[in-house]
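User: Run a structure prediction on this.
Assistant: Running it now.
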Amino acid sequence: MKKERQYTPMSEDGIAQNTSEFIPPRITRRDFFKVAGGFGASAALMLAGCSPKDSEFAGISRQSDLQPMEPSETQIPFRLEATEVDFSASPQWFPDTRTSFIKTPAGLLLFGSAGPKGARFEGNSLSTLGNAEFVLGPDGRYEEGLGYNGYRAFSSVFEGRTPEELIGIYHEEFWPSLGDGFPFKAQIGVAISRDTGRTWDIKGPILKGDILEPNSAVVQGVGQPAALVSGSGDNREVTLYHTYWGRGNANICVAKTPLAQVDNPDSWKKWNNGQFATPGFSGQSSPVISSPDGAAALVSVSWDTKLNKFLAILERGYEANPGFYISTSTDGINWGEQQMVARFPKPHSYRENGDIWYSYPTLISETRNQFITDGEGVLLCSKGKWNERAHRGVLIPFKVG
């Protein structure tokens, strides 16, 4: 699956925001504030019965360029709103993989990727986060058979084995040169922080994929990791969903380790032929989510309390029916039929200058646990204007039922 890059490697391009293509702001639904603003002051006003005037939110809400899909009677009753708000703290190129949040006694921490670097945000809510701090990045090293390390950024960050520890699972890319990010070869690594994510001790790779053709023109390896932590105490496990690229296609695979051994590469086992047995650094993986057209990627998984099932949202952008899709599972391994919940303006493979595009989805509910959704919340994803404006985060309300 070809993953396009808009940013100039290792730098910001300074492209200015251009809002001329957007429909004028419109606030029409109380539920929009309850869900999309549920993390900030606008929701507090609504829930207190003090409805603000539309003019107070000028420039915040607008019609989405996504096309939400109404579910049939036999499908999962999942609905996206047709409106969106900007994620105000978003720097350029954010998000660029899955996004993580951690609620602390002091407020909210949010981690993600902004282009080739890992970003940290801090605040009281999604609507009051401060500016991004760039706390992780590539080191430019050269590795034989891979290339130059031009990308290292968070895809999952979560609480660790002690109260002061955070664990960061990062997506790492090796490029043909530091000025050329495609086709990249990807692997997944782990880093540890003991100061709430301000500095990181990089432990190195934990999952690798087969590099089938060193000089291939397609993406290879594994990346875009989406962690799910389950269990309690000494029995906690990390299940890591990720994209596997091989011979031009992309599928969702999964690996697992005890949380206590998260930074030990030998403890990671890939799911293959019905069991977690294949070593993290070698061997094959059996896909758990695939696309009929060969390009399923960028998954984010939660346990949804409304559905009482695992809920995955993913992207299929390079095919005839491009968009965000969902699927559910009772065991996290066997996934049901994929259901489109929003159609993209056009396939990613046919984007032209000025085309609006969306990517990098994460579902967030107002729960204390980032791995649990409760049937409503927001979809945090990116929105950009191809080759004209860097992608940045937007929030779109969702509801089950």
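Residues 1-59 have pLDDT under 50 and may be disordered.
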